[in-house]
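I'd like us to work through together how a protein chain folds, taking it slowly. To get us started, please write out a protein record for me. Label the sequence line and the structure token line clearly, so we can match residues to local backbone shapes. Once you have written the record down, we can walk along the chain together.
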Amino acid sequence: MKAKAAMALLVVFLVAFSVVASGCIGGGKGETTTIPQSPTTTSSAGGQTTTSPAGTGTSTTQSPAPPELKPGIAEMDNVYVIVTDKSVVIVGPKGASPTVNIPSGKKVIRVEYEVDTANTPDVKTLMEQGQGFGAIDPAFFRDEHVDALIIAARRQTDPTIRTELFKAVYILGNKLVPEVILGQNRQLRVYWNWVKGRYYHPTLAERYDLLSEDQNAPSVKIGIKDYKNDPETYTIATFGWPESFDPAMTYETFGWEIWHEIGDTLVTYWKENTEQVSPDLAVAWAHNKDGTEWYFLIRGGVKAYDPWDDKTYPIDATDVAFTFLRVERLGHSVSWMVDAFMDVNHSSALTEEEFDQYLKEHPLIAEFNGKSTTVKSLDELKQFFGYSGDTAGVFKLVLPAPYAPVLGILADPFLSVVPMEYLLGDKYQEALQASDNGHDPSAWWNYLSEGKSDPTHQLMHNKPVGTGPFYVADYQKDAYIVLEYNPHYWNATANPGHRRVIYIINSDAMARINIFKTGTADVVAIPPEKMDTVKGLELNGFKSIVQTDILQPILTFLVFNTQREPFNDPLVREALAYAVPYDQISKIVYQGLLERNYGPIPKPWPGYTEEGITQYKYNLAKAQQLLQQAGVDPSKYKIELIYNEGNSAREKIMTLLQNVWSQLGFQVTVNSYNWPTYLDKTEHGEYDVYVVGWVPDYLDSDNWVGPFLYGATEFKSLEVTVS
């Protein structure tokens, strides 16, 4: 395409936003193009401000030259212009149109939006509801431009455009700093080599019935009742406590690990596979052409086991529909994934006959094992997946918009299917009838309530019931949890790798290490600085393993409360990002197991970039300069740094920061809280600064930028144009 023609096309597309183009690069080799500016607007970049007279691409007086764009961000006229290595991303309200020079060879992606003010929740209300790291990011940070880019990326189906949008969000997250990324974690695993078959998955814990032990492994009394750590028992010495035994009310790794052992989701990942999901409670699935309706054929013969009353409950498609709606109804922070990507009120449970009849008139697309086909009957779908067993109905899942990673969300343990009959008790038949046997799940809102007061939550929180390979047999809060092999598990075997799992809870790292040294535990959670104490151990001819070779897609970071002074000022946040001793934290606290990262996407996921960002380094002089620029007197502010008790690495981080930030003049204290209290405080915005790690919910870059930066802005309209 010739340069002149390209320039004309660019102007047309960037004025007429409702037109969407793709694959057209504006500007010929060595030339630039200009986006016309709105009347009497102001442009600023690099601290310089220039004003252009009214006009629509031409003017009657001489205008200053538009700013040259370099990798990074320019903010002008309430518009962000973000330059990546391959594109220029422009985001702003409907009608805004700054004048900028577009570097040649760059794709131009423009996101134009109109905020739905009436339906955008108040940030303070989200705090009161405890929606931090849920409906809104953990910093309670809101920037409409950032939110528009995140929503644009979610709706985009072209992976190359999604990647450029993710880069733009990464660059903005790096500059606006609602969270300071301390680094990306390497995994530290400590275990005895009598454990066999260990594997790693980025989002799911290992299934302990799939691991085994050498039969010559020692048998050691645990000191809890009559329990022993023997070759059939997998014993874990760890710290903390699950947020809840209710999958709909837990949003942290411990709770999800428990539910991966005691529950089943519609689909799952088989061991280390990250490329595609495998059948679990769904034996086959298909979707419509635009990806807004998904149909899951439910496995027959599955039972949920209630060990508290020694009863079982058959599972079918109505239980699935109930599970999904219940997650949204209870409204815990984890429910954001259901609320954002699924329409559970219009989803439903179908019979096989209803589904088969639907397929005759509405063929669906089935994809599995790298193959795709169109299915016109239930038998064709079953044959495509190679399934010939019993079934228990079909769950129809409706999405408000197509979302590429949806199957990854369905593999998350918080969507483990729970038995509706167990949870509703005497109201079960009434609720089933009210919903027309699951055809109208919205009827169940009347049988559930929001929050921890919901009776079904109280029941599941204290007496969890699931369908997985294990069940919770015994526990004492903050002391131990015992899982036993489930005799009613649909895929039970005569010789599972383990018949029992025991978590020994101890907040003291050295106490856990001593438990490990005696063989009382097979694996142990330890802080990195204690690695040398467990290297080279021997017991009964076995050796300890200390594994550090896996770079995980896990980020460790500080979270500012952007609704409190002085953290509501991005200059202050940037200043404090320069007042972090990153090298000390990596080398001393994490023994080199923390690699630098500068924004909310891990290496090497789409959107990670090192162009156009600030590579923050420890620089107190720079921090003081930025605080002066912000007009902030540090001596007037008290800062409480908090961490979860028992996590010595985070304690050391906060102690280091206390020392450094005190040098800046702030009054700094450090406090710790037990894990459930810590989560409650941070979810409700009752903090100044806290430290945490993020293990992805599902394997897509949106699952970092969304949780880290999305401020819960709703939009009346949002258009993306590409040229």
